[in-house]
Design goal:
single chain; about 250 residues; alpha/beta; eight-stranded mixed beta sheet; 5 helices
Length: about 250
């Protein structure tokens, strides 16, 4: 009887240890490693997230953000706070972003027409992936500009994200992420490709394809009543634009 009790206890302990290490290893390979490859921030570092202010709000009023930009900001912020607890994630509207944050880890949400930080980063990167004055998305990999189109209660929007070494640093130790769209829904679609809440499979695919390399991705989203439904990849590759992955 005593032997059986001891044996049962040993088996229970071994089962608990096996379960612990199994789920720890699974979490590492399924979640933690893919996230660390896509979000290549050093452990215990500070990450600044900034978004644009609607120019119509004026300088003496609280910032007004478009709904897609708000959702994009929340999903990216939550992805980092929930899955990279070692990071110090700080938010500033673009107009109040400290000057010394420009050469730190930085995530800029919103297109260059609404977010001055995005505009500054794209200029510093001499980015060929950008928007014209009409808000159409331009890329040397595309045959023609992409633009927001609506018909009845359906619409199509486009956006992109860029993951790059911070162009304001010479040591390449910090990263910038630019999330932009033709309209606000393109911003959200691009952000959701980096959102663990919405698309963990996308993050795992990006980590598998590119490891921890700088990358870009152009996306298309279909909408019904201005709700983002399907999101598809138009083009992707390493950054600066040189290598493309067949989709």
């Amino acid at each position: 009887m005593l032997f059986q009790l001891v044996l049962t206890g040993i088996v229970s302990i071994l089962s608990a240890l096996f379960g612990y290490y199994y789920f720890t290893l699974k979490d590492f390979f399924v979640r933690r490693r893919p996230l660390s490859r896509v979000f290549c921030f050093e452990k215990n570092s500070t990450v600044y997230i900034t978004s644009g202010d609607d120019p119509a709000s004026g300088t003496d009023k609280p910032p007004i953000m478009q709904p897609g930009d708000v959702a994009a900001l929340i999903e990216l912020y939550s992805t980092l706070r929930s899955n990279r607890k070692d990071l110090n994630v700080v938010y500033y509207p673009s107009g109040t972003l400290p000057a010394d944050a420009l050469d730190e880890n930085l995530i800029s949400v919103g297109g260059p027409h609404s977010n001055s930080t995005t505009n500054l980063l794209l200029e510093k990167l001499s980015s060929s992936l950008n928007f014209d004055k009409k808000g159409r998305l331009l890329s040397p990999t595309l045959d023609k500009p992409l633009s927001f189109k609506a018909k009845g209660n359906t619409a199509v929007d486009y956006g992109f994200f860029i993951k790059s070494r911070n162009p304001f640093r010479s040591d390449e130790s910090k990263y910038v992420y630019i999330i932009a769209g033709c309209e606000t829904w393109g911003v959200l679609a691009a952000a959701r490709r980096l959102s663990w809440l919405y698309a963990p499979t996308s993050i795992r695919k990006l980590a598998k394809l590119f490891k921890n390399k700088p990358i870009y991705q152009i996306v298309k989203t279909d909408m019904i009543n201005f709700h983002v439904t399907d999101i598809s990849v138009v083009d992707q590759g390493t950054w600066p634009i040189e290598t493309h992955v067949n989709l």
